[in-house]
Each structure stands twice: as C-alpha cells, then as structure tokens.
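To illustrate the input format used throughout this study, we show a single complete record. The first block contains the structure-token representation of the backbone; no residue identities are included at this stage. The design step must infer an amino acid for every position from geometry alone.
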C-alpha cells in the first residue's frame, strides 16, 4: 500500500545508560558503542527525514547524554529544520551542558522521574543519588526558560504516589506530565511479576487522575491512558504501524516501533545501506503490518480497525504468540481473558526483586560524558 509521510522520528542515539530501569524500552540485547552511527550519519538521517515530511525528532537512548557529540547531533537536527525533544534521565547533564544544547537549537526537554520518594526512585533506577540530580536538572531546564515534560513510568511500587508525582511535576514548572504505565515487552515483560499493579490500585489511580485533571486544568497537561492489561480496548500503538513515526537504533536499523525486534521473522533495513525514504516505503518490516490488509478476524471486519489498527503488534506477539493477532487487550479478542488472568497472576506474585537492565546496583557519581 502507499506509505503516508511520517511525522516523528525517535533517534536512539545510544543504548548506553548510567541507569538500569527494569522496564527499559531498549531491547534485551543492547547494541554496542562501537556500532553507533557517528555525528555525520545522524546529520544525514535528519536531512533525509525532513525531506520525507518529518517534523520532530526525539533524541533518546539509552541515555543520549552518554554521547560526547550530543550538542553537535542536536545542532544537526535543528539545522535540518526539526523540532528537537531531548528524552533524558538527566544523569550526565548539568546546567552548563544544557545551556550549550539550548544554543545548539534544543527546543524541549523530557525528564524521567521514577518516583517521588528518593529511595524508591533510586532503587528502581538502579542508581544511588539519581533522584536528586533529576530534580536539580529539571529546575535548570525551566530556569533557562525551556519547555519541560516530566515522564513517569508507572508500576506497582509507585502507582499509589500519583498525586505527589503530579504535584512534583507542577512544582518543577513542567507544562506536561506523562503518566506512562509500563509496557510489558522486553525488559518489563521479564519483570512483569515485580511491576504489575493490582486491579484495586488501577481503580484508585484512575479516580485519582480524574481529580488531578480537574485540579490542574489549564495549568498542567496530564497525559495518561489505562494500562493495556486492564483495558477494554487497545491503544493505536505508534498511531498505526508504519503510519506516523519511525525509530532508528544506535547502529542505524530502522524500526516501526521500539519493540519490533521482538517479532521473529521481520528483517530490518539500515540507513547505512539504503535511503530512509526507501526503507520507510519498501522495507518488509514496515510493509508487514501497515494499513489493515494483514488483519485477521475480529479486527478485519471491525468498525474500529482504522482507529486503533488492531492495537499493538508486539503485545499480540507477547501474549498470543502471533504478531498478526488482535491485541489481547481488546475485549473482542478471544484471548482477552488470558491477558486479564496474566495481570491478576502477575500482581498476585508480589515479587519484589528486579532484573535490572544488564547490571547490578551502582553507586557514586556518573561522569558528565562517558
Ligand atoms: Fe480494534 Fe481489532 Fe479490537 Fe476492533 S477487534 S476494537 S480493530 S483491536
Ligand atoms: Fe511494537 Fe506496539 S510496541 S507495535
């Protein structure tokens, strides 16, 4: 089918990161530093993206501040004409480097906050002292007059802290807070028994969010959706596969979503070998689930198929074992009962140990660049 023009690009500049969050969206097999695209490679990608119609780039990772050339990369994205959003843990950044990023053209900063309690926050990050550094950096962002979003991944250990989380975001001067429930593929799937909230927690959280939305109306945008395992209908993951956005891994592989490599049999093309436009339009991985022709029942004949695109392919794979199946978070899926049972089982496990992303608890202060 004809490919629509993409609007957004997520640039995973590196998989290196000082933190080790057990719900990290990076793949289980992380890419090596030696394989990362260099500054020139990213600059070329940005120019190609703009020519295709892309409007904004999310500079992400891993921790993008682990790249020594983050300022040059940011300048290249800005010079290409992209709106630039830095997605960061804040570790590896300070006010001085932030100022240089702003001068290079950085438009927006998104800082992750793990919890409001410093001990719980540092525990889930796998990094002592991370929480305080995040708060100081977020203050530096608004101190420079830059737009700030706070992102909080929500799970069993912090879901009861939504009010203090949102209050904290407001006190830091954020214009937006994203309440992002953990997505159970990759690292989070491995840690599902330790992360899954209970149904009672979800119900309380949804009521709490209603109150917070009312209290902060017009002052702070609060983005949140019901977590998939407890939902009745799926989210249109990525706004539809190969429809609005694309991800590029540190080594230059172009993916329809960050978890696409969990789907067996998909071949991913690289910007080292082909143009971005060619990959977006013709790559078998993008073609696999673009549009609606690939759908099976009940999606195939469903009135919502152009709205949610059958949900999330990676979740369908994780639960149904078939990436072309209806996302089991949909109550029209024959496997909807299974995802509900999995949520119940995982929450009942009450596991408390995390499998951290690749390494044990770290202490001490990270260098500004690695
Ligand atoms: Fe969406 Fe498919 Fe469920 Fe219909 S059956 S609501 S298209 S996931
Ligand atoms: Fe891959 Fe949803 S994360 S399609």
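Output of the design step:
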């Amino acid at each position: 089918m004809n490919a629509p023009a993409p609007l957004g690009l997520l640039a995973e500049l590196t998989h290196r990161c000082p933190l080790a969050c057990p719900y990290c969206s990076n793949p289980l097999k992380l890419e090596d530093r030696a394989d990362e695209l260099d500054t020139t490679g990213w600059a070329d990608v940005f120019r190609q993206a703009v020519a295709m119609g892309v409007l904004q780039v999310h500079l992400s990772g891993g921790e993008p501040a682990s790249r020594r050339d983050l300022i040059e990369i940011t300048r290249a994205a800005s010079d290409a004409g992209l709106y630039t959003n830095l997605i960061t843990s804040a570790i590896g950044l300070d006010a001085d480097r932030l100022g240089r990023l702003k001068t290079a053209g950085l438009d927006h900063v998104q800082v992750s906050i793990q919890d409001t309690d410093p001990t719980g926050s540092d525990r889930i990050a796998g990094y002592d002292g991370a929480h305080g550094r995040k708060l100081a950096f977020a203050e530096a962002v608004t101190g420079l007059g830059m737009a700030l979003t706070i992102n909080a991944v929500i799970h069993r250990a912090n879901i009861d802290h939504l009010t203090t989380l949102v209050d904290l975001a407001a006190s830091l001067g954020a214009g937006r807070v994203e309440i992002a429930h953990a997505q159970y593929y990759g690292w989070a799937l491995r840690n599902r028994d330790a992360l899954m909230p209970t149904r009672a927690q979800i119900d309380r959280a949804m009521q709490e969010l209603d109150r917070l939305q009312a209290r902060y109306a017009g002052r702070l945008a609060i983005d949140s959706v019901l977590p998939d395992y407890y939902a009745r209908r799926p989210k249109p993951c990525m706004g539809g596969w190969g429809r609005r956005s694309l991800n590029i891994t540190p080594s230059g592989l172009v993916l329809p979503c960050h978890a696409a490599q969990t789907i067996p049999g998909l071949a991913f093309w690289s910007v080292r070998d082909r143009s971005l436009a060619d990959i977006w339009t013709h790559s078998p991985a993008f073609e696999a689930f673009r549009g609606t022709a690939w759908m099976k029942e009940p999606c195939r004949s469903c009135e919502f198929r152009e709205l949610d695109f059958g949900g999330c392919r990676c979740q369908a794979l994780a639960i149904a074992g078939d990436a072309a199946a209806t996302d089991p978070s949909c109550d029209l899926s024959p496997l909807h009962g299974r995802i509900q049972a999995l949520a119940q089982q995982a929450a009942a496990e009450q596991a408390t140990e995390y499998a951290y992303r690749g390494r044990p608890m770290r202490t001490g202060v990270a260098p500004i660049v690695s």
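Structural context for interpreting the output: The beta strands are 8-12, 56-60, 83-88, 108-112, 147-154, 176-181, 221-224, 245-248, 254-255. The pocket of iron/sulfur cluster (ligand 1) is lined by residues 233-234, 298-299, 302, 304-305, 308, 310-311, 326-327, 330, 332 (CB under 6 Å).
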